[in-house]
Amino acid sequence: MRLSQMLFVTLREDPAEAEIPSHKLLLRAGYIRRIGSGIYAYLPLMWRVLKKVSQIVREEMDATGAQECLLPQLQPAELWRESGRWDTYTQAEGIMFAFQDRQERELGLGPTHEEVITAIAKDTIRSYRQLPVCLYQIQSKFRDEIRPRFGLMRGREFIMKDAYSFDRDEEGLKKTYEDMYQAYSNILRRSGLAFRAVEADSGAIGGSGSHEFMILAEAGEDEVLYTDDQKYAANVEKAVSLPADVEQSRFTTYEKRETPDSETIEKLCRILRCSPTNVVKNVLYQAVYDTNITVLVLVSLRGDQEVNEVKLQNELAKLASQYNAKTLISLEIPAAALQQLWASKPLPLGYIAPDLADDYISPSKNVAPRFVRLVDKTAVELKNFVTGAGEVGYHFVGANWGEDFSQPQNVVDVRKATKGDRSLHDANQKLTTARGIEVGHIFQLGTKYSQAMNATYTSEQGEELPIYMGCYGVGVSRLAQAAVEQSYDKNGIIWPVAIAPYQVIISVPNVGDREQIAAAQELYNQLNQMGIETLLDDRDERAGVKFKDADLIGIPYRIVTGRSLKNGKVEIVERATGKAHEISLQDVPSTLKTWIDNALIA
Ligand code: ATP
Ligand code: MG
Fold it and tell me: Which numbered ligand comes closest to the C-alpha of 95?
């Protein structure tokens, strides 16, 4: 492609709308344009990158035996009602764009396709002989993200590859899942990215096992905890660890102490001269289920620990049926105004005891009359602990479960693992933290959707059984931007060769020089004929502008038809290292071919 004929507009200044380097660079280098909040146009250079990423994804999916298809983006509400997700996706998480057509039928724009694919499986899969089978597609997804940001990282319309697998049983699903895990690792390795696969929470999609594939970068929205021996890595939402050791409590008798102004653990420990590991703190949450019932939750955990709200949500989701509900729609620490909606009298905030009486709740139709009391493992193990006295300005010291407070019934793991914690698999390994951009997520769904939607098959023994499903997503557009976030310098983007929009750019310093133009034209033809994707910068611009633009758009190899042309040579500059090589004209094609092939094998 000739630059003189392209829609090619670069910006010298950072656009005000962008915060992180990759977003700034993609805008400056003319890859994307913002059309609306979380809505972007992929300009020709970006589209080439996206097609390359898609092609790698496609090859790796095909290699697992999965088959490509294309499912509708327009999805009828009935399907989502069958799976029980319509309300959660249109109201609670509000992630689905939903609307009515002119016949007043409800529809949604696909944020994901479990419902559609399960309906297809139900119609088409009859017998064990048809299993296993796996389908995938690459298309635009729509999600009404509350905070779209960072350009393609979190858009409201974005490109995803999603695959869905169908197996006879759990064992088959596990095997398919392993194949996908391998395919995902291949996709990221081949795309030239540094990544880590981490254990992940399954979230609203449901199911059991799940991994996320994280591109390591400072701007990542996720926190990853891992050990240096490479044996453990997990999203902080899911991570487990050994908490720090408990210090021996110095309180041996149970008594009430005056502790004025001690509403934080820090102040309390200073006043009582004790360790936060001796304290049981009691945190109040307010949960709302999809039946609109509000449930008050008291979480007790060790003073030096924090609540992992994802783990807490998962625990509370398990209780949904007790409230005739299917799912949890919100969870928060109730602010004063919210408390007034249900509290019968002022709560002793900062001094709450594990046995906070249920009569603090003013009974009503939409508020559950009793607290759900969850006690984290870290708190259950404590002896002679300090905890709130249920009265402002007072704490108990030397308290014990089973004596001063009844033995906890609901013991859970809701603590947040943090860096520096010892790992469960080997206490000598400490957890380290890193930021990551989630570009892929794979799930073992099990029979959650097949049971809800009645997708069954007949086994060899003639039994009617639910199909075991898995689902596997890659954010194609997010991956492309994450590649930039991982690889750029002050001059611009440094694309990995495998996903660069073009592999080579020929910059002609002086288009008025016949010899330069002739040599450039000749190389351009040769390279393109060999299948090396080459740009020709034949614009009537100063050499400095051309070099700057070539660096900004990040093409891996730049050929300069400059002074050395008199000796039958050109200069080739490697974008990543800045290294320049003088190469004879006749050797240019073979040299570049070798470099590119090597870069692609890696
Ligand atoms: P996140 O936690 O970042 O919101 P998710 O868990 O909702 O993502 P999945 O449902 O697992 O995402 O979707 C599969 C993949 O699609 C993600 O791993 C990510 O790469 C991509 N993706 C999800 N949401 C967006 C978005 N709003 N914009 C761009 N890519 C996205
Ligand atoms: Mg995810």
Answer: 1
Which of 478, 479, 481, 485 for a ligand 1 pocket mutation test, highest count of atoms within 8 Å of Cβ?
478
Q: How far is the CA of 474 from the centre of ligand 1 (A)?
A: 8
Residue from 179, 146, 174, 180 nearest 162 by CA: 180
Ligand 2 centroid, distance to 441 Cα (angstroms)? 5
Provide the residue count of the chain.
602
> Which residues, 6 or more positions from 499, have their beta carbon under 8 angstroms from its beta carbon?
49, 52, 53, 56, 191, 192, 480, 483
The 10 Å Cβ neighbour count of residue 322 is: 12
DSSP state of 242: B
Backbone angles phi, psi at 537, to 5 degrees: -90, 90
Residue 87 sits at φ, ψ, to 5 deg, of: -65, -45
Q: Determine the average pLDDT of the residues in 112-137.
A: 97
* Neighbouring residues of 305: CB distance < 8 A, sequence distance ≥ 6: 243, 376, 378, 415, 416
- Regarding the beta carbon of 87 and ligand 1, being less than 6 Å apart is answered no
**Per-position b or e across 178-190, b if 16+ CB within 10 A of its CB:** ebbbebbebbbeb
Q: Tens digits of per-residue pLDDT, 185-209? A: 999 999 999 999 999 987 655 556 8
* Helices 476-486, 44-64: crossing angle, 10 deg rounding: 110
For residue range 95-118, what is the model confidence (pLDDT) as tens digits? Answer: 999 999 999 999 999 999 999 999
Helix, strand and coil percent figures for the chain, each rounded to 5: 30, 30, 40
Compute the distance from residue 456 Cα to the ligand 2 centre, in Å.
Answer: 27
- pLDDT, tens only, 72-99: 999 999 999 999 889 889 986 679 999 9
The answer to whether residues 331 and 314 touch, using CB atoms and an 8 Å cutoff, is no
DSSP 521-580: HHHHHHHHHTT--EEEE--SS-HHHHHHHHHHHT-SEEEE--GGGGGTEEEEEETTT--E
Lowest mean pLDDT among 155-164, 331-340, 428-437, 550-559: 331-340
Answer whether 222 contacts ligand 1 (Cβ < 6 A).
Answer: no
Q: Report the sign of the C-alpha dihedral through residues 352, 356, 362, 368, in that order.
A: positive
> How far does residue 3's CA lie from ligand 2's centre (Å)?
39
Any ligand 1 atom below 6 A from CB of 144: no
The domains found in the chain, sorted by start residue, are 15-240+433-485 (3.30.930.10), 255-412 (3.90.960.10), 502-601 (3.40.50.800)
Counting beta carbons within 10 angstroms of the beta carbon of residue 197, is it exposed (0 to 12), middle (13 to 18) or buried (19 or more)?
A: middle
pLDDT at 602: 59
Please give the Cα distance from 351 to 370 (Å, whole number). 19
pLDDT tens digits, residue range 438-490?
Answer: 999 999 999 989 999 999 999 999 999 999 999 999 999 999 999 999 999 99
Ligand 1 centroid from CA 114, angstroms: 15
